[in-house]
Amino acid sequence: MVGNSFSYSRSTWSSNMALAMAGGIDGFALNVGSDSWSSNRVADAYAAAIGTPFKLFLSLDMSSLPCASTGDAKLIRQYVNNYSNHPNQLFYRGQQVVSTFSGSDCKFGQSNINTAWNYAVKATATKPIAFIPAFFSPTSSFASTTVMNGDFNWNGGWPMGDYDIDFSTDQTHINAIGARYYMAPVTPAFFTHYGANSFNKNWIYRSDDWLYNSRWELLIQHRAQIDIVEIITWNDYGESHYIGPIGPDQPGSQAWVNGFDHQGWNIMTKYYADAWRSGVYPTISKNQIFLSARPHSKALTIKDPIGKPNSWQWTDDNLYAVVFATGPGSLQLSIGSSNRTTAISAGVNKIKLPLSPGSPTALLRDSNGNLLISFSPSGFTYVTKAAAYNFNYYMAASP
C-alpha cells in the first residue's frame, strides 16, 4: 500500500524488500492512489529494487484514482510507461503486468469498459500489457470484458461466510476467465474498525482455523491452474492483513494494530512460496513454533462507540499454533487455565486450544522428551476487559 508509505525513504524500501525476499516473496504489487506524493514513493521503490532480483508492478487503486474523463487517464499512462523499461518491472510471459483494485465502472470518457481500459492502459503503452485487474463485477461479464488479460480474484483470499476457505470461488473465476491469466490471493486475516466519521468500515471476514496455511495449501494443490499468487498484504494496517513490519504511516489504525506484530506470517511464507514454485514441499530443517490469537472473546461487550464489527460471530476463541518440526515429538500448549499436549510429526502441524485469560506458553519436545523450544512471546495476552473491540491477531514466531 503506497498510501501507507508517506515517510519511506529509499532505504526503508530496501529494508522492506530484504525482509520480503527472506520470506520467499518475489516482488511487490504497488497499490497507488491519488495522493500527490505517491509518484515519488513509487519512484523510490523502483530505485531501491535496482541490483536485486525483486520485481515490482502497479496496482491502480480505482477506489481512489479518478476515472471518469479522458484526462483521468494521463496519470495512469505515466505510471505504466515510466517503468516499462525498468529492470525490476514485472513482466509475465513477455508482457508488462498492470493490475487494479476495482475499476469495473471506469469510463475515462469512453463508451464501455473495454474501450475505457484500452484507452487508459494499452493505447499508449510502449510494451505489451498483461492487464490483470481486480474488477468487482460478476464473473459472467468476463467473457465480454476482452480488455482483461487475466483476473485477480481479490475477494477469494477469505471465506465470504462462516465456513473454512476452499477453492470454489477460485474455480468459478478460473472457468470464467478461460485461457487468460489467473492471479490468486492468499491472506492471513481481515478486520477493520473505522467509525462513520472516518472510513465507515467495521467488519471482519472469517480468518480462523489457520487461514494463511490452509489457503497456501489449496493454492499449491491447484498450482497448475494459477499463474501468479499475490499476498494481501504487506502493509495494509487498516484491514489487519499486513505481514510486514508495522510502519509509522498508519491510516488511523493504531488502536487495533500497535502491539500486534504479524511478521511471523512472513517468516512462514518461505516454506509455502518454495513449495508453490517447485510443486514440492521442502524438508523442514529448523524447528519453529507460530502462535496466533485475538486479544479478547468474541462475546465480550465493550462500550465502544464504533460498535461490534459486522460478522463478529464468525470467529472462534482459540489459540492457534503451527509447528514446523524436523521430527516427531510433542507440543505442550497452555494459556491461562487451558492446556493440552499433542503429538507432533515431522512437517507442519496445526493445533488449537480454547483461550483462557493469560499469556501463552509452548513447549516443544523431541520423541525422547528433550526440550527443543520453550516459547512465551511477550506482549501476547488474552484479556477479559478492553477499551475497544479488537478482532486483530497477535501473531508471534519463536526464534
UniProtKB/TrEMBL annotation:
Pfam families documented for this protein: Glyco_hydro_71 (PF03659)
Keywords: Hydrolase
Highest taxon of source: Eukaryota
Any one Gene Ontology molecular-function term assigned to this protein's record: glucan endo-1,3-alpha-glucosidase activity
Matching InterPro entries: Glyco_hydro_71 (IPR005197)
Protein name: Glycoside hydrolase family 71 protein
Annotated organism of origin: Hydnum rufescens UP504
